[in-house]
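Researcher: Sequence recovery benchmark, item below. Answer with residues only.
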């Protein structure tokens, strides 16, 4: 039975990856920080842990060298998936030192622990790199050979993690790989990420719990895929004969504005945007779904400059030709299927919250 160690196991990717590895017969170990917030992914991970004797959680943090080394020594994993990170780009501008400590030096701590423990011939390491490495992209679409131009403290920290993985691979012969994953979402995505903010906002609007959703740059374009597809790619990357780095992406781009339109459209609601820049507003144009009573011309989307990044990344589009050829990987979800799954899950989430509150007050 192979052993896998996952940092960030209680996040979106960690949850889906845990499920995948358990299905493949792995013994799964996860690094679990003490400072937990109540989110869906963490609850799902706990449910998985409770239902399987092959998953084990360890208290730990990527900012603690001795702790990480101790866990790796205890588990002696065949595979390590470093998914843990301070992953909110906008917040990284406010906490740049923490981003560097967790996202950059965190990977170094893992690599050094594996090396010093003499596990470099046994343990394969996956580093969760990010499309944010490209930032102010010098070419479109972005592939493994596209120059990096990070535009946030988060991206700069991830750049260090990327290159330190390459360096240890070349210097010590370690099996260390980078998966440069473009935006991947799901109903388990954290509420601070723009995709989930949108689907939660849509669900709150159509259930009458919110009047309007306030957004930042509606023109930003992203290459969105489903996290289920992307964790499969992570696993495939570590199964190759030789360690290599791969871009994982759908190759399709969608603007924030269009993602909002799609999210409403899957419910039978048409959105029309009028105005420009900070004065752009999204209105209800039509509603063919009898379940939702939304007045035509109601303003439901507005722009708030407070949500702008200090340095914006305007366009992200990945070229995953190498992954499709070498890994035989292809995404199963398109952006409409992704948006529909997220919106419907968040509608159920909102309605359940309402029912629980009613039950609480009734009790």
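Model:
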């Amino acid at each position: 039975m192979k052993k896998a160690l996952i940092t960030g196991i209680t996040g979106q990717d960690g949850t889906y990856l845990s499920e995948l590895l358990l299905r493949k017969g792995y013994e799964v170990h996860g690094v679990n920080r003490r400072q937990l917030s109540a989110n869906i992914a963490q609850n799902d991970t706990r449910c998985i842990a409770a239902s399987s004797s092959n998953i084990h959680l360890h208290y730990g943090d990527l900012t603690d060298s001795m702790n990480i080394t101790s866990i790796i020594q205890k588990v002696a994993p065949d595979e390590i998936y470093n998914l843990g990170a301070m992953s909110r780009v906008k917040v990284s501008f406010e906490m740049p030192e923490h981003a560097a400590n967790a996202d950059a030096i965190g990977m170094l701590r893992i690599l050094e622990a594996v090396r010093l423990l003499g596990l470099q011939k046994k343990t394969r390491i996956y580093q969760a790199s990010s499309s944010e490495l490209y930032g102010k992209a010098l070419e479109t679409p972005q592939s493994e050979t596209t120059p990096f131009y990070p535009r946030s403290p988060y991206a700069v920290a991830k750049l260090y993690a990327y290159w330190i993985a390459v360096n240890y691979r070349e210097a010590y012969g370690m099996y260390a790989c980078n998966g440069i994953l473009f935006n991947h979402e799901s109903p388990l995505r954290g509420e601070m990420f723009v995709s989930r903010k949108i689907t939660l906002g849509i669900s709150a609007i159509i259930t009458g719990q919110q009047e309007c959703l306030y957004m930042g740059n509606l023109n930003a374009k992203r290459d969105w895929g489903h996290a289920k597809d992307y964790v499969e790619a992570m696993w495939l990357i570590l199964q190759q004969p030789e360690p290599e780095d791969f871009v994982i992406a759908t190759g399709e781009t969608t603007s924030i504005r269009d993602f909002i339109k799609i999210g409403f459209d899957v419910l039978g609601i048409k959105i029309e945007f009028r105005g420009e820049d900070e004065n752009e507003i999204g209105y209800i144009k039509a509603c063919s779904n009898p379940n939702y009573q939304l007045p035509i011309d109601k303003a439901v989307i507005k722009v708030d400059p407070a949500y702008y990044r200090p340095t914006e990344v305007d366009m992200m589009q990945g070229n995953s030709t190498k992954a499709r050829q070498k890994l035989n990987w292809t995404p199963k979800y398109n952006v409409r299927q992704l948006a529909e799954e997220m919106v419907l899950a968040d509608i159920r989430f909102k309605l359940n919250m309402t029912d629980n509150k009613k039950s609480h007050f009734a009790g």
